[in-house]
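Re: the request from the purification team.
They wanted to know what the chain is likely to look like in 3D before they choose a buffer screen. I agreed to run a prediction and write the result into the notebook, where they can find it.
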Amino acid sequence: MGGYVRRDPRTWRGWSGMRENRIRKVWETGGVARNVFLGIPDSFAAEVMASLDWDGVTIDMQHGVIDYQVAVNMLQAISRYEAAPMIRVPWNDPAIIMKALDAGAYGIICPMVNNRDDAERFIGACRYAPNGYRSTGPVRAVFYAGTDYHQHAEETILTFAMIETREGLDNLDEILAMPGLDAVYIGPSDLSVSLGGPPGGDQTWPEAMEAIEVILAGAKRHGVKAAIHTVSAEYANLMIDKGFDLVTLSNDYRHMSAKAREMLAALKTG
């Protein structure tokens, strides 16, 4: 009776070496990456969203109702698909950033990066020495990405610094100049509030729009990718036309609610 030979699951999809980051691949070909946030603490919901043709799927630990163990389960569900698994961490805390990466996140979106020190703390937690101070222990990441994870993590993992305050806007150039920063990510609601405007996504308030243009121009000037959170496809397309490199189109519970509302409205009542 022949023995069972366990194959490397990466070879089933034609991978060699560390599993690729789909967002990076899109950028390398000059495309715009399409991302979605997950706020529902459920691995099946994560699996359903990942099965669609997103380039990135981001577990939202800041404003989603998700803790670390649930996030790990969601990462496992996402792993079947090609979308890059990312996490928006709750804060610029090296401990949770490193745990998210060790669990297999291929990108970290860090909120409230307001100055050079914030950016240095964030980026350092994502990079191994000598480029940072990330501790070596990718406990689940090696099963998702491959046993050569340590050798290739630097060019695979993505770092997104969220610019969403007046202070961040004032210190934009020093943040963008930080080595190891891949992208800035605009949080339109917090940015608008910080500037004295209304909360909410898809901002059209003039001062908020001006700030968005300033951040985008700064990113282009420094050779850093620019990303933004949007609520509607119409606004996302507007941001793509402006030159953004990644757009997040809302989140899982908004998509679910919108479709349910549409179907309920179409349902006969008698």
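For the purification team: The first helix runs from residue 22 to 28.
Please add any questions underneath this entry.
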